[in-house]
Amino acid sequence: MRDWMKKGLAASMGLAVISKERMEKILRDMVKRGEMTPSASKELLEKLIVRGEQEQEQLDQYLRGRMNKLLKEMNISTHEDIQDLKQQIHLLEERLTRLETKYGTPPQEDPDQGS
């Protein structure tokens, strides 16, 4: 699945670069033909880049949401799930330490003895 994601992201980035290069060429040609001023060309390109970045962010958000949904459907733990569990363990360890301090530490079992 990671390979598929990497290929998809690389393709989208490649398309973005090609699109930017193609748009720059089109705008340069329009300036050469006198259909657009250089400043108007630059302004339009900047607007298109901003719009492209906004659309890329929307796509990223959609993909993150979709991936999270797929991970949940597949019952795979996310980084957030693991962090939550680590926090719970930390809180339980603190609570256990307080209880051991208050009531004394119980004798440790020898792990080599077995049951």
Q: How would you describe the overall organization of this protein?
A:
- The chain is an all-alpha fold.
- The chain has 2 domains: 2-73; 78-104.
- 80% of the residues lie in helices and 0% in strands.
- The chain has helices at residues 2-32, 38-73, 79-103.
- Helix 1 packs antiparallel against helix 2 (38-73).
- The longest helix is centred in the middle third of the chain and has 36 residues, at 38-73.
- The two termini are 43 Å apart.
- The mean pLDDT is 81.
Brief overview:
This protein has 115 residues and is mainly alpha-helical. The protein has helices at 2-32, 38-73, 79-103. It has two domains: 2-73; 78-104.
Q: Give the terminus-to-terminus CA distance.
A: 43 Å
Radius of gyration: 28 Å
Count of runs of 4 or more consecutive helical residues: 3
> Can you tell me the number of structural domains?
2
Low-confidence stretches: none
Report the strand count: 0
Strand percentage lies at under 5%
Mean pLDDT: 81
- Helix/strand/pairing category: mainly alpha
List keywords for this structure.
2 domains; 3 helices; mainly alpha; 80% helix; 115 residues; rod-shaped; single chain
Element layout with pairings:
Elements lengths: L1 H31 L5 H36 L5 H25 L12
Helix pairs in contact: 1-2
